[in-house]
Amino acid sequence: MTTPPSAATSAPAVADDGDVAAAHWRLVGAFLAPHRRALTGFSLLVLVAGALPLAGPVLLGAIADGAGGAAGEADAARLALLAAAFGAVGLLANGADLLVAWLGARLAWRAANQLRVRVAAHALALGSTWHARSTPGEVVDRVDGDATRVGELLAQVVVRLSAALVTLAGVVVLLTVQDWRLGAALALLLAAGGVVLVRLRDLAVPAGVVARQRSGEVFGAAEERLRGAEELRALGGSRYAVADLHRRSALTLAPWRRQETYATGIWSASMLVVFGGGAVALLGGILLQRAGVLTIGQVLAAFTATQLTRRPLEQLAENIQQIQQAGAGAVRLGELLSQPPAVEFHGEARLPDGALEVELDAVRAAYPGADDDTLHGVTLHLPGGQHLGVVGASGGGKTTLTRLLHRSLDPRLGTVRLAGIDLREVDEASLRRRVAVVSQEVQLLSASIRDNLTLLGSVEADDDRLVAALDAVGLGDWYARLPSGLDARLGSEAGTSAGEAQLLALARVLLRDPGLVVLDEPTARLDTASAMAVTRALDVLLEGRTAVVVAHRLATLERVDRIALVRDGRIVEEGPRELLRHGDTGFARLVAAELGAVS
Ligand SMILES: Nc1ncnc2c1ncn2[C@@H]1O[C@H](COP(=O)(O)OP(=O)(O)OP(=O)(O)O)[C@@H](O)[C@H]1O
């Protein structure tokens, strides 16, 4: 498979809106490069399919002229031959159309799918700031809706439109051969029609952009509310959520209506051109026939040829709307693809086995688009195998500090090292294997337990190892109750409480055998019994590994070796846990003050 250009590095600097749109198109187009050969073959076929029907009017004219004369034996045979050729052209043209439709659909699906996969992969690589700004529904709409439209456009519509243009040009040539004045009149009419169509399309595109954006927002809002359905219902918010959805969806009406109006205008304009062309051929043809310039057969050929413009013009009118929708989609996809990923991996170093030593050296970190740094010069040293508890008031920078450890964010200045290796030098696969993260909100998939444990196969482990990991975190009894074992689907066949979900997440981490575990207080949202089960599992998981634990409870700190107090993006205190024992030290008072409200 051809590797696509990195969206982050290939996004060109753009000056104005036109440049931005062009840059976005280039970015999207580059992702379809692997289909270039298939597209070329398809284009040739489409050109043949576009040119074939042109033979029909020529044959019809010759038949009409032949039938008008004295019908000798030879003439009758010639007429029969012409009629047979006329039928054969019709058959061939239809056959070519079928082939074009079949191949076009296949090509469009492949191109769209490839684009979809690329966009999904890029969306997954984007940082937390970007994801915080976009609802999952909006992202899904881009990954599926926009990618499908753009893939179809690039693989099929553009090619079909080229065929339409070939037919139109062929008709003009055909008329010119009959008489140049007929050809010139039709060319003028087509040019005028073309200008009107393009103008209408330009008006329709912005309406389409707004319409697609609004429907993306409705999709996003619906997804978000469905996800929080239980809470919404419990708090009596359902009615308001529905009313809000109705209001949002009503906002899509105006741009859709505008877009549809322009689409109808485009259709009418193209039909006017067809009728105008027919009138030109009939009127001009009859005048020229009276003047003895054309035969009746030639007039018939000219008129029939103008009627061939109907299909390409219909196609233009139809596809112009598709182009306009895909244009809006391409701009949105381009925007997404030009967002730099949170971090880029170029390093090849491998992290060693065993517990990893952690060092932060004068680290400053900022989120994309933020004016200020979130971390202001953090320095920290945690020997391999030790456990650090990080405490501090909300918004102080604890999560940001942990994000640096698994490279969800890179320092703006300073260095983060694991086992003495700058994280920017480390190979991605090695980092993902050796550093594990457990957040408060466990992300379980509606898939089998096996897929959840191996994260869709990203860890190789046989069933015995999977079951042993479940046992180790205390899920042995839960697992034993499941009739279909590791194949049980989470949700439908295997229900999980919040505590069990956390334990599953810990088993998932255990299987990776990491050297550093980063935890965001996994017991914070659990009841006492579940919290105890998770704490027991943590004892197993963290044994012999380095750990950084964001702690919201004093109890959590009892199991760590060192404690760091984070406030306003700085580590204001850091020291061994023993200091807490002496309740009168400044350190103990500070920690107690930070945790007092929640412990
Ligand atoms: N993904 C993000 N994009 C932009 N800013 C962010 C992002 N995450 C956090 N911030 C900002 O960075 C600052 C530090 O947040 P951080 O989440 O690191 O604090 P915290 O101490 O972990 O807080 P909490 O205990 O509430 O989780 C806050 O001002 C927050 O608004």
From TrEMBL:
It is a multi-pass membrane protein. This is Helicase. Keywords: ATP-binding, Helicase, Hydrolase, Membrane, Nucleotide-binding, Transmembrane, Transmembrane helix. PROSITE patterns: ABC_TM1F, ABC_TRANSPORTER_2. Residues 44-325 form the ABC transmembrane type-1 domain. It is found in: Cell membrane. One of its GO terms (molecular function) is helicase activity. It comes from Egicoccus halophilus. Pfam families: ABC_membrane (PF00664), ABC_tran (PF00005).
